[in-house]
Amino acid sequence: MLEQMLKIILAAHAAQTIAISFHDLQTGQRVELAAGERMHAASTMKLAVLLAAHRLELDLDQPVRVENKFKSLADGSDFSVDPKDDGDPWPYTQLGREVPLRVLLERMIIRSSNLATNLVLQRLDAARITQVCRELGARDIEVLRGVEDGKAFAKGLNNTTTAHDLAVLLEASAAQPEIVELLARQEFNEGIPAALPKGTRVAHKTGDIDRIYHDAALVYPPGRKPYVLVVMTRGFATLEQGAAAVREVSRAVWQSAVEKQR
């Protein structure tokens, strides 16, 4: 039933690409549609960074100097992150100061800070992050670099993932309360959470760039184990159109997995 409902949604958006991975940790039900489709990860790659930082047992209290200068993956030249393209102004107020790595991880998730992400990646090799994903069973995700590296983007050197792999990472995250708590504090909630009953706990990470909008979530219905839902979209003209499609999927999943089971 759920699979048919989701296929109807995808058919209504045939001009765009929508990839879905759903896994109910209560019942074991799994539905995947185009879940192996590789897309630009946008900020969902920050989930992999967060998970790797914890699994590699980095000292989260180590101080990190806040600077806005990084090396491009394309040619080693310097680039900086434009505050106008960043969802979080706070790290820019800390330039020249030291802040704990833990705080940068928080800003990377709750406000999707690009500057914080790149600072964290100076302490975490991108290849090692990808290797952690492989060890967890995510076979296709590739973390190559930080964000806002324009020269690398122009050369096609991008972070990529699939809906299936993001679901794998979320399942691993579900067993780590500190990660779940941080993901539950994300402040961009126009996707999966917006289609759910008010007050539903959602631990998630969104990501968007031009014509890309994704949301990857652990959803916690009352009185039962959570379910994993990842919806990735490509081809919608605006973020709001992409988020609206994600909400359609989120609403259908909740109706099938929760409301019809009562």
What is the overall shape? globular
Strand order of the largest sheet: 2-1-11-10-9
Number of domains: 2
| Estimated structural class | alpha+beta
Largest sheet: 5 strands, antiparallel
Plain-language structure description:
- With 262 residues, this protein is α+β, with helices and mostly antiparallel strands.
- It folds into two domains: 1-37 and 163-262, Beta-lactamase (3-Layer(aba) Sandwich); 40-161, DD-peptidase/beta-lactamase superfamily (Beta-lactamase, 3-Layer(aba) Sandwich), CATH 3.40.710.10.
- Helix content is 35%, strand content 20%.
- It has nine helices and eleven strands.
- Strands 2-1-11-10-9 form a five-stranded antiparallel beta sheet, with helices on both faces. A two-stranded antiparallel sheet has the order 3-8. The chain has a two-stranded antiparallel sheet with strand order 4-7.
- β10 (212-220) and β11 form a beta hairpin.
- The chain is globular.
- The two termini are 16 Å apart.
- The model has no long low-confidence stretch (mean pLDDT 97).
Could you give a quick summary of the protein structure above?
By secondary structure, the protein is an alpha+beta fold. Helices cover 35% and strands 20% of the residues. It has two domains: 1-37 and 163-262, DD-peptidase/beta-lactamase superfamily (Beta-lactamase), CATH 3.40.710.10; 40-161, Beta-lactamase, CATH 3.40.710.
Fold topology:
Blueprint: H1 2-12, E1 17-24, E2 30-33, E3 39-40, H2 45-55, E4 63-65, E5 70-71, E6 78-79, E7 98-100, H3 101-110, H4 114-121, H5 126-136, H6 150-154, E8 160-161, H7 163-173, H8 177-183, E9 201-209, E10 212-220, E11 227-234, H9 239-257
Helix pairs in contact: 1-9, 2-5, 3-4
